[in-house]
Queue: 3 jobs
Job 1
Amino acid sequence: MKITAVKTFVVYVYRTNFIFVKLETDAGLSGVGEGTLEYKERALLGALEDLKDYLIGQDPRLIEKHTFMMYRESYWRTGPVLMSAISAVEMAMWDILGKSCQMPVHALLGGAVRDEIRMYANGWFAGAQTPEEFAAKARAAVVKGVRALKWDPFGAAYLTLDRRQFTQAMDCVAAVRQAVGNDVDLLIEGHGRFNVDTAVRIAAALAPYEPMFFEEPVPPDSLDALAQVHRRSPVPIAAGERIYSLSQFHDFLHRGCADFFQPDVSHCGGVLAVKKMAAMAEPCYLSMAPHNPSGPVANAACLQLAGCTANYAILEIMLTDVAWRRELTDERVEFNDGAIRIPHAPGLGVELNEAACAAHPFQPVCLRHYRGDLTDIRPQGGTACYFQGME
């Protein structure tokens, strides 16, 4: 079996652009992957174009070999652009291998350890501005069966928070906790933008609300700063979505940076890279809570990993998205009482609709949370959810 074509699809979805890759073969099998890299789409497309010369004519089932070669032959290696390109291609190769064996990817990676994975919702707060509005959105999500909610209450703040910003953020957290009670987990997003002192101050203020974790409290550039916050924080810390290689994760692990590690399958090298990181974390009793705010193909890969990874604790899910997300693939996620079912179709279990992808071409998107309007994550016409069991 040989790869005959490498196709790319860039799909505008308001908050970002999904980037899908499709590998076609001379055996009639194809595989899909995703490398969605917010705000660097054109750079990623260039990296994928560079990889085509190597990939055409290769057997896509030799996944370890090709991932190693694509990495080794690149002089500039561990940044997000190259690694996202490799991740998308690697994901598509797993999809082909699974289809060729008529087995889901999780069965090829050691077999299932669970039938479902607990989920936490992102995007549930669309349109909320005040603590009262966040509280109402939170109650609505819980009614649908959501049992864990993540959001960023910090507006446009960067590095520090003045007294007014700090009070507003904590009022928002308090309102949501009061609205949903103590049986729902709260996960607080920092988006990697506070200095050490401010992050520790936030963590201390969050403690009475018992969050499951405080995510990315400091910029990802300094593991030392992250480790400082972790040592001083009274609440669990989560981080790692901007870790792009096994060597970076080794440093993250041995510096004691967090309680939850959040690899992104679209950026860190793909399915096998996440599986290797999970194996490194397991003897340290570090839980995995993968970063997954992207599209349906990345979500499918995350579910395959959730099925076969023992220390995989919880999965991020975008509760709301653009109305046309359901048209882009045949994704049908099964949800029940705060958990997502692990699928058992061959490969990743999802197929692209190329015509639907082409109907929503690339548009540039700004990084909104630094402007303070993160709450406006979807346009008019957005859908409340796209899960079976949560319509």
Job 2
Amino acid sequence: MGRISKRRSAGKNPDARSGAVTAQKIRYYRAGIYARLSAETDRKESRASQSESLEGQIEIARKFIEEWNGKHTDQMEVSDCYIDLGKTGTNFNRDAFQRLMQDVRRGDINCVIVKDLSRFGRNYLEAGNYIEKIFPFLGVRFIAVADGWDTGAEGSEMQQMSSAMAVEIRNLVNDMYARDCSMKAKTSLVQRRKEGSYVGGPAPYGYQAVWEGRVRKLIPDENTAEIVRYIYQKFIETESYTAVVKELNIRKINPPAVYHKTGEVCCLPDAVYKGWNKSGVERIVKSDTYAGRLIQGKTSITAREESNRIHKPKEEWVVQEAAHEPLITPETASAAAGIREKWKKRREQNEG
């Protein structure tokens, strides 16, 4: 009886242990869905395919999770969605992506899901570094739904090598595509500048930017053109940026940033007044734009922060004379330049 009892006990224990092992193998993934759409290049793609939109990317990832949970013992749940709008895929210095990585390091996210590899990034080396080194080191599963790439999927060594090679090829293609688009954008920008098109952001204070055919032209803004003339007049009279600032602030005229945002020339009675400063006045007085001269291409087009801008030599600038209607006369421009030149000579004498 003892032997029978022991055999029965032995017969039950393997099943119990098997059940425990099976339970231990069930894994729960806290997924972070990442979606990206850049300002220009990917916007064109989104018009061609709705799936490229941010909403489309997120919906594809959610659908994948829903189908996964219906077919597998391991379960996934969406912890958060990380969205970068207007961000290039050529680098990973993106706000939402950095927040995703912060949550990954905290252990809040152990699975990253993207629509495809191009949404993750178009830089071949950096994308490969995250997928093949950083994520595995941190124990994070990476899934690119449309590309069929899943670092947690089981398979033969040959299949894994084949998949890895396919990912590297896709990353390389994405990288080359981004470089090609960047080169085309730069070429187009240079050509538009040579045609006299204003390629900056908001029009300079005192002007509006309008399209005339394929050329973006500056025309006087009837709301602020007279204020620009007033600034030059007061500067010539007082020979002082500070004095001009004082006059503008007394009259509670909104500075350029506030005007561009609100459309209000003067501060409204119930609004907090954010006045002018010396640099704002100095920028206008020093600008050739108000004399009808358009100078573009002074800095690199890829630098988004002032600290990273590359200032180009004058011979590389694109200069258009009489590019638009001037707001000041040549005599006014000359008088203002004369005052600044006098200051420069005085400084040189003092330093000498």
Job 3
Amino acid sequence: MNFFFEVLIGGLLSGIMYALVALGFVLIYKASGVFNFAQGAMVFFAALTCVSITTEFGLSLWLAIPITMAVMVVLALAIEKVVLRPLVNQSEITLFMATIGLTFFIEGLAQLMWGSQVKRLDLGIPDVPMQSLLDQFNIVISQFDLVAAGICAVLVTALAFIFSKTKIGRALRAVADDHQAALAVGIPLQHIWAIVWAAAGFVALVAGLLWGARNGVQFALTFVALKALPVLILGGFTSIPGAIVGGLIIGASEKLAEVYIGPMVGGGIEGWFPYVLALLFLLIRPEGLFGERIIRRI
């Protein structure tokens, strides 16, 4: 039983980190109706920029982080102004294709600026078992996973509060419901989009630092965003609470499946099980747990 809880807790901690990545998708989709396929590239760009500033210029990590944050905000604002704003009122598929193009541009820009070698990132958080849990419950939980999940939980909660309970959040919901109506009542559409893209850049930075410290800063970080897709399908593309719940479900289920089902199918199930779960979920509730149910009358 201890081993089961060890696997479950480890999965839930990973799930909180998945929820953080998914949150970047949700914020942009709520505000503009754009599925930002480039979110994974932004995660990679943020992590590579931060670690490269420390190695190339000899700055400390805690000085490199605010500099990278400023770079991510500038990048996000540039994307909104140069790419998104000229495509206002275009079809969703046009906007989606634009973000695919952005993905390759950002990935290439990052590697052009800083190189393509795998880089080590040390956040000063030891990746060792929590001794108190090991002594009292005989459960091995990494201290890094626990701290990283705590950081993600605080950030997700803060963003959820800002975009649900504040004036900016109300404006965001109005823009998400109807762009033209929001403009008619005086909501500055471009300002809202700029704020949301900047928030998505900040989320990408935190996610990039945490996943980069865990797996190394490398091109594979772009694929972290793909793990957010099952999270979005389960939770709903427009729901911040859905991103949290979906992340926890995906994180826990993939770890349990890897341990208990993996040996029966030859292993490697952790990579594809979330997508199978999401596919099955689409057949039952395609709008997600927290998404609005679409009712069509003929």
